[in-house]
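Hey, sorry to bother you again with one of my protein questions. A protein chain has come my way and I'm curious about its shape. I'm sending you its amino acid sequence along with the backbone structure tokens. I owe you a coffee for this, so here goes:
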Amino acid sequence: MFRAANFVIVPACLSLLLTGCATELPIAERIARATPAVSVVARGETVPVGSANQDAADDPAIWRNPARPQASLIVGTDKKAGLYAYDLEGKIRDFFDAGRVNNVDLRADISVAGTPRIVVAASDRNDIAQAKIALFTLDPDSAKLTPLGTVPAGSGEAYGICLGQSEGTLYAFMVLKDGTIHQVALDFAGPSPAGQIVRTMKLATQSEGCVVDEKTQRLYVAEEDVGLWRFDARPTGPIVPTKIAAADGKNIVADAEGVALAEGPGNARYILVSSQGDNAYTILSASDETYVGRFRIAAGTYGATEETDGIELIVGDFGPAYPGGLFIAQDGIQAGGAQNFKLVAWDDIKAAIGLAP
């Protein structure tokens, strides 16, 4: 600690001596310093979550109805209260009071007691000392969420979650708030679900968003103040991570939050990361993990998005409004006081960035 005359300068603030001891730059300056981002506008939005005037909406998941794309469904978390099911018009179809569930993912055609079902998994942080995975089925017609039960996922606070299949087994990757990642093998053969931790990985600091690329068996995890990491997602694979993008204030501005995966034309594949610090989204090529571009959801018919936590993207036909795919982003600031999710056409993002149609 440096002392001079009648004032004290904390060492951590020495580098900010000329600009003031601030923990973070104003949003306008963060945007100005970051790599430029193109603008798109949302084509829809969901009804706000029920927890008003709180940081509540967090993470979405999408089920695409292959037979009737316009009847596809969205599941979103209110991390103070539970899970919502929405239709593509953003209307609430169901709500389940699951308490403090943070992130969510889903997979279709999972055998539950011998019957193919849509399985929804949420990170359950009702007990911050013992992480759990809350499991549900989603009815494709009624949009009703039915609880299956919870399975333990290690000691610590549940935070992020994503699902991935490997050799016929569905795995949940539970990201604890301290950066610990447990790979949990899920079993739905019995009267209630079971889970077994088969492998543990670790990042140094607070982490949350994740996604599994099932084709390459890669797991991508965002360490909020550090950047995006890649792990081997196979249950017997190595546990050493590789950093593929830094939260350096340029391409990704901390916090690095939600992570999503897109399949493009041919073999083109993309990783998307919520660059929460400057209200933008970063796209990387999944093939070589290089930077592709950045976009921001600006105000239009619907509002802009700010301070986005969770994101999701599914490529495919979702009907006339979203013919090439659907991107969903949590909106952290809503004029009405309750957060919601914005719906954006993947075609609009590709056109703005200049990706192949």
User: Anything to note?
Assistant: Residues 1-22 have pLDDT under 50 and may be disordered.
